[in-house]
Amino acid sequence: MTKNVTLIYGDGIGPEVIRSVVDIIEFLGCDINFDTQIAGLESVKKYDKPINDKLIESIRENKVALKGPVTTPVGRGFRSVNVGLRQEFNLYANVRPVKNFEGLKCRYENVDLVVMRENTEGLYSGVERKEGEEKAVSERIITKKASEDIARYAFEYARKENRKKITALHKANILKLTDRIFLDAVESVAGEYKDIELEEMIIDAACMNIVMHPEKYDILLATNLFGDIISDLCAGLIGGLGLTTGANIGKDAAIFEAVHGSAPDIAGTNSANPTACILAASDMLGYLGLKEECTKIKRAIEDIFKDGKTLTKDLGGNCGTKEFTREVIARLK
Ligand code: ATP
User: Fold this and answer.
1) Which of 182, 234, 193 is nearest to 210 (CA)?
2) Do the domain assignments include residue 33?
3) Most buried by CB count within 10 Å: which residue of 105, 151, 203, 312?
């Protein structure tokens, strides 16, 4: 049966990396119908809002979306499309696996962890206000419900993926009320999963420990902002933002994307690494039940890195986005 998927090309390098993904999925002959929608600046121009009704209807109907990066204006302009969509569809779990690729030289070996981030509240609740000209307040909202939901997702994921330890990241020594609620929720859920070890670590100490001994970590469980920052840090452990994917999962919908942003500095130059987006698409195929195609894509990417001859600029090579895509397709044949 044909599966409908909402597709957002996004800004900056988005159209280049999503093109790469569409070419690969078309080559595989997956029975997928892409319903292309716009978001962000393009949507503001056409509909006067970054998240338009057609996009929302499309995701509500299809329940699955593949999203290119959408630029979020810094310190002004419209609210983040990513944050808006995650809240609209209650995509409470943001799952970002970080694992070394064999053959790809980087500072660390044996990195194999997953950042599991609460995706709907925390400092990204969007409750901000000015109090006079020289003061602004941002509310960090933490609820028992959302904390339990992400904790349960993390423990279930650990069982399913045969992972042994969850490290909950917090700053409860300073943020005594909010992070106490988060930790209490995590601890109560952990009580139901005696087979999985729970460890708690203050976020700043965790940053140091993770860069010193990343191999000691398995699942990192965090509130929204800490999870966002730590996932870029972890991407750096295995070779950078061009490689890491993120799935935003809710009970009624899921959006798959790369961890990186729109990288306007390299947009339109055919130098973006499409790997993160390709792997996001592969995860999406797995989620849709197309396990064989999911594995095929992953293997092709792993083979490329094992060979080490076809690398994009961010990984020290000189291969363009289009050429890299052709290489992936060649290895699917
Ligand atoms: P945004 O405002 O959308 O978050 P940004 O440029 O601030 O964009 P990122 O897009 O996450 O943030 O990128 C940070 C840097 O990492 C970019 O300047 C770019 O050089 C590099 N980068 C990100 N993604 C890729 C990619 N897929 N391939 C190559 N380099 C990338």
Assistant:
1) 234
2) yes
3) 151
Last residue of a domain, one of 186, 203, 238: 238
Which residues form ligand 1's pocket by a CB distance below 6 Å?
A: 13, 69, 71-72, 241-242, 260-266, 272-273, 276, 314
- Sorted by sequence, the CB contacts under 8 Å of residue 22 that are 6+ apart come out as 7, 34
Output the CA 265–ligand 1 centroid distance in Å: 8
Nearest to 65 by CA among 40, 92, 101, 91: 91
Pair of tokens at residue 332 = 């699917």
Residue 77 in this model has a pLDDT that exceeds 90:
no
Question: Where in the sequence is the domain holding 178, given as residue range(s)?
Answer: 107-238
Q: Distances from the Cα of 91 to the Cαs of 17, 52, 63, 139, 267, in angstroms?
A: 23, 18, 11, 20, 28
**Percentages of the chain per state (helix, strand, coil), in multiples of 5:** 45, 20, 35
pLDDT 10s digits, 102-111: 999 888 999 9
